[in-house]
Amino acid sequence: MNRTTLTWPALMQAAQGGDQQAYRQLLQEVVPLVRAVVRRRIFDGSMVEDVIQDTLLTLHRVRQTYNPAQPFEPWISTIAEARAVDALRRHGRTRRREISDVQALEQVIDPGALRQAHMLAVESELDQLLSLLPERQRQAIELVKLREMPLDEAARASNLSVSALKALLHRALTRLRKLREY
Predict the structure, then answer these.
(1) b/e map of 3-24 (b: 16 or more CB within 10 Å)?
(2) Which is it for the CA torsion 143, 114, 57, 49, positive or negative?
């Protein structure tokens, strides 16, 4: 099959299978769509380019979560929208354009894709925050909060006493709260 005739879902599926050429083609082809989505929210040209890059990095990180049986455009659009909103929040510019035709919006946006994109955005923010923690604090959060291990089991897995693990958790959660305020 000629690569230029592949659809975005097919390109993404090939990329998920390790096809670097398909992945490169997909990234090149989706940039105009991502740019259009981002420009609906952000008017600062340099910020638009930053959000496009952030969207492509997010796409790279979560590419294995895409289901090729589903439409690709709403999936990547939702990621771009989430990245744009995150950028606006970081820069303190939360004024948004209102969508006046709600019925048209509901026809275009798949609620499942919207939920999935929101979860991806949350996971992305969590990954970024956790990467800023010292290794032992990050491990404590992952074991107890993300994997929901009981304290005694998590303490054994990390070769700590329960009280030492609790102290690590407290420090980690305090640091995460401070990091999230920025």
Answers:
(1) eeebebbbbbbbbbeebeebbe
(2) negative
Low-confidence ranges of the chain (pLDDT < 50): 1-4, 94-99
Instruction: Please give the CATH topology (third level) of the domain spanning 1-94.
Output: Rna Polymerase Sigma Factor; Chain: A (1.10.1740)
Provide the residue type at 24 as one letter: R
Phi, psi of 101 (to 5 degrees): -105, 85
Report the half-sphere exposure of 58 (CA within 13 A, side-chain side).
31
Question: What is the tens place of the pLDDT at every residue in 114-154?
Answer: 666 667 666 777 777 788 888 999 899 888 888 888 999 99
Distance between first and last Cα of the chain? 49
d(CA 43, CA 1): 40
Rg (CA), the chain: 20
